[in-house]
Amino acid sequence: MPKLPEDFVERVRTSTNITDVVSKYVQLKKAGQNLFGLCPFHEERTASFSVNEGKQIFHCFSCGRGGNVFTFLMDLKGLSFPEAVEAVAKDDGIELPAGVTTQATNPKHQQQQPLIAAHQEAAQLYHHILVNTKLGETARAYLKKRQISPEMIDRFNLGYAPGNQVLQSFFSERKTDYQTLRKTGLFVEDQQGNLKDRFSNRLMFPIANLTGALVGFSGRLLQPDDNAPKYLNSPETEIFNKRRVLYNYATARQAARQEHRLILFEGFMDVISATQAGIENGVASMGTSLTEEQIYDLKRVTDHIDICYDGDTPGQKAIARAVTLLEQTKQFQIGVIQIPNGMDPDEYRREFGAAGFQNIVKSGREPVIKFRLRYLRTQFNLSNEAERIDYAQQATRLIASLDSSVERTVYLKDLATDLDLELASLQEQCDQDRQRLEHEQRPAHSKVTPPPAAPQQREQPRYSRVENAERQLLTAMLHDSNVWTQVINRPDFNFVHDDYQQLYLFAQEFFRQHAEYDSAEFSDFVGERHLQSVLAELEMTPAYDYYSAQAVADCVKIIQQDAPLTAQIKTLKHEFAVAEQTGNELQQLKLATDLIKLQQQLDRLKATDD
C-alpha cells in the first residue's frame, strides 16, 4: 500500500484549523491565549483540555495527551494515522492521491472494527427489509401512521427485524466469524452454542456512539406482548454501553454549534419527529434516567439544555428528575419546553405540523423556576387549607433561590394572585427564606464566597532542577535557530532524560529536511504518541526567553554539571533497592554512604549557582 506523500499530509494539515475539528467534539471557550474545554479522553469537572490555534496543537494538562489535529482524531476515534489524514481531508474536500488507500493499524480499532462492521451490515439488512420487502409492510404502515417521511426513514436508517432468524442466516451465508457474531450482542446463544436472532418482529433503531460509529440497536414491538418489553436494547458489549450513549448525539452536536443548545427528548421517535420538523439539535437517552456519563457528554457540547418530554403526568415527573440531575452539576443553563394538552412531542408535530412544532420549541421554552412552581402545584390539593399553606411556603422557598429581585417579584405576584394572598406577606416570607439560604450557603471560615475561577491553564508539575533546565533549553532550541546552533555545536552535549534526548535526536533529523520549525508538522515527524504528548506539553508551557544567551548557557551548565551526579544517584538508588530486597545490610550501608556523598556534591553545586 503506497504511503501518503509528505507534501499531501502537510497540505491537509495546513488547510484545516484544529479548533474547527476539536469543536465538533468539545465545547471550547477562550481563556488567555488558548481555548479550553472538558477533555474528551477522560471525565473531569474543571476544563484542563487546551487548544493553541497559533501552533495548531492540543494538550490536556490533566491526562497528558497532546498533539496535532491528526493525533486528536487518532486518540478520539481509534484511527490510524492515514485514516486520520483521510478524515481531515474529506472534511476539507481534498481527494486522496491516486492509488493511495488507508488502512486501520490501531489495535483497539482493529479489535472493534469487525463488531462495528457487523452492526452496519445488520442495519443495512434491516433497512432493506423495511423499505423493500413484504415482510416490512407492517412496520411501513406503522411509520406512515406516525407520519414519518421516507427521507427520515433513510436518514435514521430505520429497519425491521422479522421473526424468522433472518439475521443468523444472513451472516451464515457470508461465513462471518462465529466468535465475532457472539460478541456483537445481535444474537442470543443457547446451551448448545447455537445463535438465534435477539431481535424479532421489531422496528429497529440503529444506535451510534459519540463519534458516529454504529454500535447497537433498540427494537420496538409493533404488536403488544405482555411477555416481552416494548423496547429491547442491545446488551452491554465491547462497543456498546447504554450509559454512554445518547441517541442522535453525533449528528446533533453539529447543530448545537450553531444553536448553542441541545434539546433533550424522551424517546427516539421524538428525536426523529423533531428532525423532520427542522429541529436538528435533539438527542435522547436510552429509555432510562440521565446518567453521569451522558451528562458529561452533554457538557462537552454545550452549557444550554432544553428538556422537551411528554406533557402528561409521567412526562412531567421525568422532567423534574432530569432538571434535578442537571442542576446538581451547576454547569448548565436549563430550560423546559412544555408540550400542551398532555401530548408528547411527536403527537404535537403530527397535530400541528412542522411550523407548529418549531413555534412551540421557541415560544414554549420556560425557565426552570416556572416549571418547578407549576409542577409543585400539582402535588397539592389547594382546596384544602393546610395543603394550600404548605404549597405557599414551599413555593416561596423556590422563589427565594432566585438571584434577581425582579424575577422574585414577578413570581411572587403570580403566586399571590393564584392563591388570593397578600403580596406583602409572601414577600416577607420570601425574604426570610432568602436570609436562611444565604446563611446555609455561606462558608464557615468566611463571610464572603469567592467567585468561581475562570478556566485557565493548570499549574505545571514541579520538575527537578535538571529537568526544568532541559525543558527550557529544548523549547528554546526548537524555536530559535541561534540557540539551536549554539547547542548543536557542542559535540559532547546530551540531554539527561530519555524523552528530551529522543526529541533532540528527532529534531536533528527534522532540521536536515526542513528549513523552519512548525509544531504541528514536527509532531507528525516524531510519530510516537508518548513523545507527541511531551512535545505538546512543552509547546503549551509559557514562553521562555529564547534570545538570552546567558539563560541558554545557564541551562547547558546545569545539565552538564548535574547530569552525571543525577545519573549516578539514580543508579545507586536502584542498587540500594535491590540490596534491600535481598537483605544485604552491608551493601545497603555502603550504598547509603555513597548516596549521601553524591547528594551533598549536588547540593553544593546548586548552592554555588544560587
TrEMBL record:
Catalytic activity, as annotated: ssDNA + n NTP = ssDNA/pppN(pN)n-1 hybrid + (n-1) diphosphate
Name of encoding gene: dnaG
Keyword Membrane listed: no
CDD domains: TOPRIM_DnaG_primases
Function: RNA polymerase that catalyzes the synthesis of short RNA molecules used as primers for DNA polymerase during DNA replication.
UniProt subunit comment: Monomer. Interacts with DnaB.
Signal sequence segment: none
PROSITE patterns: TOPRIM
SMART domains: TOPRIM, ZnF_CHCC
Enzyme superclass (EC): transferase
The protein, known as: DNA primase
NCBIfam families, per database record: dnaG
Region (Disordered): 431-465
Transmembrane segments: none
Domain Toprim: 260-344
